[in-house]
């Protein structure tokens, strides 16, 4: 994206946040908009698709602190129409330096992209570049921005690990030139003016200035035959499916990083990374405490009093669990090694909480037997409230 476009677009407005919004606020705003505007959720809606692209473009700049700083500085610099005219500055109308030397603002921007000889490169290195003659380090295309997305998994898939496909629409290496920016069968050549550094130096009075090379737009190379697909940028917006391997035991809210799967860098520069935030749906049977799985097991009063062996569910089928005689309601029994897989090997435990299920309807025979039991219990001297509440 050119620096000129940076001035004309309001990325904060696109994301619905204020210019002083925190990085966390920007992240939250983008996630919500991306989820609502994603093409998969709005098939055939061209207006929503364009809005999705604008939101993605805004996030690519504002989510990167370095790009955001450059964007803010550029907009502030030109908010009033240009630099102050009386201090050797230049104006957006292209009127030039006050000393009489003309300087076209269009040449400054040059239609280049951020990090490719535009305003940010000029001021970022104005006083910090090396001397003339190609000794200065070139202004190379910057690494692509990191990209964030989300996915939601079932509880059991998250615990056991799963591979999921994600459909992404974002800048990716051009499939025609494979990111070089040059038409297939040709290659970029080193810029003869700056010897591949991307920087040229000049003297103005007592000062020496380093600035992006006009011939190569600060990239250090010249493309004689630009790729017809990407027009020499080496990137294009593509919809692609990326396979993400989610490791076993991942927790709700955790992120998976896929190196090099983010936004493509300009003209073959390295791509950014893709960060996938994983959300986990609750399970109707299992819960989780760290590396342990939890489950509440309904049992009868008789199973607790007399003891029993019952079947309990695990992630890999059912196992038998022995309930000792006299087990209290609410006691937690442990089944070792049947919990969440651990990264270093092994697994947590399954924690089974026994909970008495009270029958709602008793037939005459069962009710009569229960009353006989209560009479026998009372005759034995058992008082369930003995010592309770000062009794």
TrEMBL record:
Chain positions recorded as Zn(2+) 1 binding sites: 174, 177, 227, 230
Binding site for Zn(2+) 2: 191, 194, 213, 216
Localization: Cytoplasm
Domain CR-type: 161-239
Gene3D superfamilies xref list: DnaJ domain (1.10.287.110), Heat shock protein DnaJ, cysteine-rich domain (2.10.230.10), Urease metallochaperone UreE, N-terminal domain (2.60.260.20)
SUPFAM superfamilies: Chaperone J-domain, DnaJ/Hsp40 cysteine-rich domain, HSP40/DnaJ peptide-binding domain
Keyword Cytoplasm among record annotations: yes
Keywords: Chaperone, Cytoplasm, DNA replication, Metal-binding, Repeat, Stress response, Zinc, Zinc-finger
Cofactor notes: Binds 2 Zn(2+) ions per monomer.
Domain spans labelled J: 10-75
CXXCXGXG motif repeat residues: 174-181, 191-198, 213-220, 227-234
Main location: cytoplasm
Keyword rRNA-binding: no
Names of required cofactors: Zn(2+)
Chain intervals annotated as zinc finger (CR-type): 161-239
Its job: Participates actively in the response to hyperosmotic and heat shock by preventing the aggregation of stress-denatured proteins and by disaggregating proteins, also in an autonomous, DnaK-independent fashion. Unfolded proteins bind initially to DnaJ; upon interaction with the DnaJ-bound protein, DnaK hydrolyzes its bound ATP, resulting in the formation of a stable complex. GrpE releases ADP from DnaK; ATP binding to DnaK triggers the release of the substrate protein, thus completing the reaction cycle.
Assembly behavior: Homodimer.
Comment text on domains: The J domain is necessary and sufficient to stimulate DnaK ATPase activity. Zinc center 1 plays an important role in the autonomous, DnaK-independent chaperone activity of DnaJ. Zinc center 2 is essential for interaction with DnaK and for DnaJ activity.
Family label: Belongs to the DnaJ family.
Name of the protein: Chaperone protein DnaJ
